[in-house]
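Annex B. Sample input.
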Amino acid sequence: MNFDQRINVENIRLIVIDNIHTVCENFMKADGSIDYIERYNFLLKQSRDLKRLAFRFNVVVVILNNVVADVNHDGQAKGFFENKSRGQSIVPSLGMLWSNCINERIAMKRKGTTVDCKRTISIEKSAYMRKNEVDFEILNIGIRGKV
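Annex B, continued. Sample output.
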């Protein structure tokens, strides 16, 4: 059974990819340099294929963990992607190319200790939703928004 058939047979409506950045480590050469052209072409193809899959089968595709710490600390503006995590600047892990391939960017953040933890979800990039932020909590029965 191919993937298209599996989506229909199993009624799949959500695909979660945890960290596409890890796949891109395959483009590292033996000398430690990165084949940026091959990685660029791979990312464009994956983006196009995932969007086509989502549209064709009405499936939501979520890709997790795609930011890294800004180790350059250059203080320069990162365009529309200017964010902080635990006080440190973060940037798209696959660069501006991947950041421009996505349709929506939603950030989930956790602040505080494990006992008194505040969680927030915010819309950072969207073609049809305005920027917004909502607090939420994770309970034994699921996720619940806070009023």
